[in-house]
Amino acid sequence: MARKPELGKWLLYRFFARNASARKHLPTTRKYSKKSLASMLQAYGAVYLKPAAGSRGRGVMKVWNDRQGRVIVQHTVRRPIAFATLDKANVHIRRSQGGNVYIVQQAVRLLQVKGRPMDVRVMMQRDRPGGKWLYSGMVAKIAGPSSIVTNVALSHGTVMSVDRALRQAGWTKEQIARTKSRLVQLAHAWAKHFDTYQPYRELGFDVAIDVEGGIWLLEENTGPSHRLFAKNIDGLADYRRIQYRWGRYEQARRRNGPRQCSTPSCGPLPDARKAVTTRQSIS
């Protein structure tokens, strides 16, 4: 059976908004236009603009109003640019789009580690075609200096255990354990919802934790990077588990006969594959 096309950020937002367990964890998102940007800025004070088909944090902009009433636009790791009016900011944004479709999204007040925003990657896998979803690990991604994105390669950020990150943010052991358990529970529900579109062998969910402990689903990756987990400064246990389950899936797939592709890219080695990001990676 032919694979369905990969969904971009906008269609994925609409797809997950139909799921009760995901809907309340989604930041408000609209297609970008002058009107939607103005209304979202008025509602939330700060927003992210992201290419609908973008990946790895590339092309992301953050837009907000400063105390002088100016509109500030910052691209990924670049310095912010101030505009006197929203119309002038929109001209700059249009030029930066390069003809690509963008979404505008509510900016979540992300939890910070030593003054830098963080989010969490939760990895879900199958160890055989048609098998049940298995939780394989999670890591915290800490943004690099002056970056609005947590993508490690782009921002020169840090990957560490979620426990370490939340401890450095001042959380107790009980708070950490409760939040990690909830993240795993939600990731199972979200992975099962993804199956209603088409099956995948692995999924990576990028999740924000806000300053009040709220959980926000930022991005769904259908070809998630394994190497991200190899960069964890707190050890390789999750990375080895991920690699092991990838190998188990490959063995089962070969035993089943004809090649079955259940991820956007089915190369023989997971770390040689190019990760496909189907939504966002905000700061």
Automatic annotation (TrEMBL):
<feature type="region of interest" description="Disordered">
    <location>
        <begin position="253"/>
        <end position="283"/>
    </location>
</feature>
<dbReference type="Pfam" id="PF14398">
    <property type="entry name" value="ATPgrasp_YheCD"/>
</dbReference>
<dbReference type="InterPro" id="IPR026838">
    <property type="entry name" value="YheC/D"/>
</dbReference>
<protein>
    <submittedName>
        <fullName>YheC/D-like protein</fullName>
    </submittedName>
</protein>
